[in-house]
Each structure stands twice: as C-alpha cells, then as structure tokens.
Amino acid sequence: MLGKLSGWDDTIVALATPQGIGAIGVVRVSGKDAINIVNNLFPSKDLSAKPSHTLHVGMLQQKGTSIDQVVVSLFKAPSSYTGENVVEISSHGSPYVLEKIIGAITAEGARLAKPGEFTQRAFLNAKLDLTQAEAVADLISSNTEASRKHALQNIRGGFSSILKTLRDQLLSFSALIELELDFSQEDVEFADRKRLHNIIDEAQKTTADLLSSFTLGNVIKHGVQVAIIGKPNSGKSTLLNALLNENRAIVSEIAGTTRDTIEEILNIDGILFRLIDTAGIRQHTHDIIENIGIEKSLEKMSQADVVIYLFDVNEISGEELQIIIHELNEKRIHYLLVGNKIDLSTDEILAEKFSNINVLYISAGNKKNVEVLKQRLVDEVIGGNLKAESTIVSNARHYEALRLVHQSLSDIREGMDMNISGDLLSLDIRRCLHYLGEITGEITNEDQLDYIFSKFCIGK
C-alpha cells in the first residue's frame, strides 16, 4: 500500500523533541535513503556497515564543516517504528544547531515530514493498525494517569484484539456461506446457522458494551465540567479554594463578591475536573456587572457534566431545598446537593431540617469532608468502571463506526430470523465487515488518513 501513495517513497526528516532550548534534541529521519543521507554527513563511521539497533558517537559535518558532536541511533528496515530505515540523531538542544542539522539533511535529498507522517508510515507498513496509531497521539497528549493507561492499553492492541476476533469470526462464516452458493445446485449447508446466532449475540453484546463506554471515554480524554452553583455567600469560592488547596478565589462576607466565573483544573484519581466557581444566583439585583455574572453562571450550569449545588445549611429550610431540587430535576441537571457551614449547626438540626434528602455535608472553611466530596465526584462520573485492563472507546470516529457495526449485526440477526437467502445474508455480513475494517484501517482512503494524521504533532 505504501508504494501506491504519492510521496511515500521519499525520505523524511523532522524534529522529534519539543521546540525550544533543551539539554538535547532529537532529529528523526525515515525512508529508504535515511541511512545513506546521514552517512554522507557522518564521516566518523560507515553506518551502512553497522548492524541495526546500535548507537554511534561522532561529529556531524556538512561539506567539511562540523555542526555538532552527536549520537546516531540506527534502525534498519523492517525492524523500526516506521518499518523503513530510521536514523535518530541526538544533538545538543540548541534550536540553531537542530535547524542546521535538519537543513543539512534536507540538502542531501530528504524532505520535511508532515504532521504524524512517521506514525502514518508505521500504519501503512503494517507496524500498527489504525486504532493503535490513533492511540499513539492519545498517549502523547495524555495529561492524567487514567488517560495514559487508556492510551497504552490501546497501543498494546486491547481494542484491536476485540475487533480482530469479531472480524475473524464473521469472515470465516461469510466464507462458508459463499461456499454454499458455489454448491447451490447440491443443496448443501456448510455454515452452521446456530453457531452464527451465537456469534451475532456475542458480537452485539461486545459492541453494546463498547458503545456504552464512550461516555466514560470522553471523561478520561477531555475531563469533566463541574459547575459550583448556589446563592450568594453560600461558600462557593471557599469550596473552590478548599478543593484546590490554595487561595485561588477571593473570599469575603460580602454577598456577590464573585462577579464572573472562575475556572480551575483539579486532578482527582487520574480524572481531570474542570471546576467552575460561578457568581451567586439570586432573583433580584440592580448591579449590572453582577447580572452579567449570573447569566454566565446559568449558562455554565447548563453546559456542566456535574453541578455542585452548594447551600448554607443555616440559611435554608427543607421546603426551600425541595423546591430547588424540583427545579434541578426539571432542567435534567446532573447534580450533587452539598450543604456547607455545618460547623455552625448540629447533627440533630440537620437531620430534622433535611430528612429524606440526600445531602453531603461539609465545612468548606474548615475543609471538613472535602475529601469525601472529591471521592463522590469521581464516583459520579466513573461509577467504579475505570480499570487499567478495560477497553474503553474515547474516539468519536470509532464510536460512529461501532454504531454502524451494531446496526449491521442487528440486520444480520433479523435476516437470519426471516430465513433470507445465503447471498443476501452474505451481503449483510460484508457490510458489517466493512464498518469493522474502517475502524482498524483495513478499509480506508488517502484523504481519511491525511485527516487523521494531520492531528498528530510533527516528528511523530
């Protein structure tokens, strides 16, 4: 497939480490001429005569002028990341030095790599399937333990292995049905319909589980929006400071101190929570700036994945809280009721005022039960479903293709129940295989690949 696409016979080069000054920088070269090109700039040794997976120290030169003393890492095809000859040059991390090295390599005939082109070549050379290639980008951009584990699980082939098992079973059965068509005059049946029923049942369950994991996958990949909502002076800013363990928001006894939304990020158990401290919501205020803040608060509440409705347990009755609960339920908001300033009340009073209402009681000022609230937030969004070995869908492209796979499986099952002919059943199975192939990359096109890999960083 590689040779059929324009530009894929070129040798490419790119900086593989971040831009800016560092102790070292790495320039990556890949392609059939990678070793010869670097060899022309590396008089210290004949790299073409050296074995793969070896390191070589020497001076990199261009037309007799030394550029830098470097370490050259040699990877010969097909035993490399891309499946091609790959050379990685580790030099001192001066941006000027790195630019000189890349310039010398392009002068020898290489071209600058496009975003994700190294990984795209790895895919085209069957070193990775498309789900594994996309997981590489996810791992690079991971910023929590949960997202790291999820990406690593997919790079190892967790998602791919599930799809491969399903695809192999359907391919095998499709071949048997098509064999029946070749012997249609003999009226023989090679494909066990009962076994296909079992395969379809299991496949539907698997795809349904993967589809239902997409919500959790979004949480892992993008984090959770949490809006802290409540009346003025209920302690929202104090709670934000307590959750962050720093004085991020201004706190005072004056109602309406927070005029705008304040957003901060908190990592709890490997999940990113984007905390939004909002202006206090009250029905009547003549302050124009505060009114704008309240409008933003209502907007953030509607956009949030979880709303913490914070109230002062000393300033609200059980009846008022029931009205608020009714309004939150009407708006279909996912919320937690959090009663604040319990240090100014007693357990007996709280039990009497808020009986039969599920409230988490805290004292934000004293940080009492703040850790309990953090755990409740985690439980609300993952429900104990996050496991290192579990396969979770976080890619919208995968989700859409899986939805089509699931529908195709239903069509196959319906066709079997209606005893449709083998040729029509074979078409249904082929359509399902097509959607599975779109996920893993067995079926794709150049435009789709360019779009997927354009999201990668240059040098990977």
Order of helices and strands: EEHEEEHEHHHHHHEHEEHEHEHEHHHH
Number of strands: 12
Structural class: alpha/beta
How big a fraction of the residues is strand? 15-25%
CATH class of the largest domain: Alpha Beta
Strand count, sense and barrel status of the largest sheet are: 6 strands, mixed
CATH topology of the largest domain: Rossmann fold
Q: Indicate the CATH architecture of the largest domain.
A: 3-Layer(aba) Sandwich
Rg result: 30 Å
> In the residues, how many domains can be counted?
3
Helicity, as a percent range: 40-55%
> Helical element count?
16
Question: Could you give the order of strands across the largest sheet?
Answer: 3-4-5-2-1-6
- Residue-averaged pLDDT: 82
**N-to-C span:** 20 Å
Look at the structure and name the CATH superfamily of the largest domain.
Answer: P-loop containing nucleotide triphosphate hydrolases
Question: What do you see in this structure?
Answer:
It is a single chain. The protein has 460 residues and is α/β, with parallel strands linked by helices. The protein has 3 domains: 2-128, 2-Layer Sandwich (Gyrase A, domain 2); 136-213 and 392-441, tRNA modification GTPase MnmE domain 2 (Four Helix Bundle (Hemerythrin (Met), subunit A)), CATH 1.20.120.430; 227-382, Rossmann fold (3-Layer(aba) Sandwich). It is 46% helix and 17% strand. The chain is built from 16 helices and 12 strands. The strands form 2 sheets. The protein has a 6-stranded mixed sheet, covered by helices on one side. α6 (158-182) packs antiparallel against α15 (422-440). The radius of gyration is 30 Å and the shape is flat. Residues 249-260 and 280-294 have low confidence and may be disordered.
